[in-house]
Amino acid sequence: MFKFLFDRDTWQEVFDSFGKNKLRSILTMVGVWWGILLLIGLLGSARGLENSFNRLFGDFATNSVFVWGESTGKPFKGFQEGRRVRLSLTDAKKIEENVEGIEFVLPRSQQSVAVTRNFLSGTFQMAGDYPLLDELQKKKLIHGRFINQNDIDDNKKVAVISEDTYKQLFEKDEKAVDQYIEVNNINFKVVGVFEVSNVNMGPSTDIHVPFTTFQRIYNKGDRIGWMMITGKPEFNIKQIEKDAKLLLKNLNDIHPKDTRAFGSFNLGKEFAKVTGFLIGMQFLTWFVGIATLIAGVFAIGNILLITVKERTKEIGVRRALGATPFEIKRQIVVEAVFLTLVAGVIGIISGGWILIGLDAAFGQGEDAAIVNASVSIAVVFIALVILVILGTLIGLIPAFKATSVKPIEALREE
Amino acid sequence: MLKINQLHKSYPIGDSSLHVLKGIDLKVEAGEMVAIMGSSGSGKSTLLNIIGMLDEADSGDYILDGLPIKDLTEKKAAVYRNKFLGFIFQSFNLINYKNALENVALPLYYQGMKRKERQEKALFHLEKVGLADWAQHLPKELSGGQNQRVAIARALAANPKLLLADEPTGALDTTTSYEIMAFIQQLNDEGKTILMVTHEEDIANMCKRIVRLRDGVIMEDKKVEQVRAEQYV
């Protein structure tokens, strides 16, 4: 059936007909070329943006929600409304034990502090943290280490400071690790310097100290600032947020329908928005690309229609010599598919060049807007299959047109 | 070889129709060389086209070499044309972007013959018309007479039973016409059956039989003394 594809004459015919209408064929192919170029370029860029988002969010446990206490909105169990709600370590522990699908519950406390070192000083946000934080929001450490379990157990007075804090408190090229900074007249040994990430979830922190140390210095006892609840990947974070809040209300004597008692920020929900946006963009890309492709393929059909009209007499001669209508149709369809495919392949190649260009312009460095802009082989393959299908379908129109003319009428044509 | 019985053909023209062939009876034996003559509008080309299966009769019988030609599908007609008939046209109808050899090989291509075999055979026929040296030339690089010889080689390539020529000398000057006629006569001498449409008396007289048409009926059908074309060349 497809033996003719390997016949030299089949291709001779295709090239002859192409050579006769060079300019027109090229102009026609521009349509398909442009469509594929757009498809590849846009898909690659969308992928690049997605990669860039993933890189930013990759350091975060995105299936998380932050919860903190605010004021009650309803009176309950003898308490008046407007009561200040404060979360405690016990709350965090209870959530971890009782809510389904929890991976971690990470309590945090933070407050603004004045820090001095020799003659340099500044006001910074200092947080008490567990080592776990480093797993949920990956800290990029330039020097030293993050807080470890030892620090927690022994209430060590150590601090991990941000790069900006370092710049304010230290001279240029001065070593920070193993130096001391003074916070409210208490000396903390610097054990690490971290780089501030581009994306910040929750309040930004300049100085991390061990959670236990923080609680002790500020006499927090059991009280914590807020907690970060992370769900296992297979659990819905919205449900976890609901369950956790209900449990918290129960533990703190708050009306079950009180919506104002707790503030929260659902990272999972926000992340889903971004993901949704990316999916939307991909859909749009496919839509635009394929719509342009279809327009291009129609242009090819159009040109073949004209070519067929011009070749009416030749087709008549061929039929007088014994060409069957099927052979004529097949030849025209092969021409259509060939033109679409060549235009498509050139489009894919030049689309690739555009992606290389994008990568060179925007894809370099740590905070690149477009990371590894690329399309997968599967996408290229799908695009090619679409081209072949569209080319065949559109080729059928001139093919039927060519054989709709009786040979006798075709021969009379001048 | 060829038998036609009460053949009718009309073409619709607007609301009315034009009755072109009004009951043609014709019998051609193998080895004959027949000229169909008539003024324009007499129906001679229509008759040739029906014989060539390029057109279909409204009624009547047409039997070619014992095979009834009726209600053919396009595909079957194409196969029959390829197998039984060779066409020579007034305007040569060579494919202009194919060289002489490729043009001659075209009917063989549609027979499904292998490329090498096809080209050997095509070259053989080109040699026969004396154009072997011109095999690689495009039609535009050849003279009218040469083009018609290529066309004859093409018509012969599939070794048809019947050669149909529609004004084969119509586009040629007298000398070249006679050259072509000499060639066609030679083919007839070798046993080919030839049917040609012409309106030139001298060309018709080079055939062995003249059939005159007028207004869709045969006025006269006579055997003639063949004038050999070589003497004029």
Descriptive report:
The complex is a heterodimer of chains A (414) and B (233). Chain A has 414 residues and is α+β, with helices and mostly antiparallel strands. Chain A has two domains: 3-58 and 272-412, no CATH class; 64-267, no CATH class. Chain A has 13 helices and ten strands. Chain A has helices spanning 8-20, 22-58, 89-98, 133-136, 149-153, 163-169, 211-217, 237-251, 267-310, 312-320, 325-362, 377-404, 407-412; strands at 64-69, 102-117, 120-129, 140-144, 158-162, 180-183, 186-195, 207-210, 226-231, 262-266. A six-stranded mixed β-barrel of chain A has the order 2-3-8-5-7-6. In chain A, helix 1 (8-20) packs across helix 11 (325-362). The longest helix of chain A has 44 residues, at 267-310. The radius of gyration of chain A is 34 Å and the shape is elongated. Chain B is an alpha/beta fold and 233 residues long. Chain B has seven helices and ten strands. In chain B, the strands form two sheets. Chain B has a six-stranded mixed β-sheet with strand order 6-7-8-3-9-10, with helices on both faces. In chain B, strand 1 and strand 2 form a beta hairpin. In chain B, helix 3 crosses helix 4 (115-128), helix 3 (100-111) packs parallel to helix 5 (144-157) and helix 4 packs across helix 5 (144-157). Chain B is globular. The chains are: A alpha+beta (414), B alpha/beta (233). Chain A binds chain B through residues 7-9, 12, 16, 19-20, 313-314, 317-327, 403, 406-408, 411, and chain B through 49, 52, 54-55, 74-75, 78-79, 81-83, 87, 89, 93, 95, 97-98, 102, 106-107, 109-111, 115, 154, 158. Chain A: Residues 287-406 form the ABC3 transporter permease C-terminal domain. Chain A: The chain crosses the membrane at residues 26-46, 283-308, 336-356, 368-397. Chain A: Belongs to the ABC-4 integral membrane protein family.
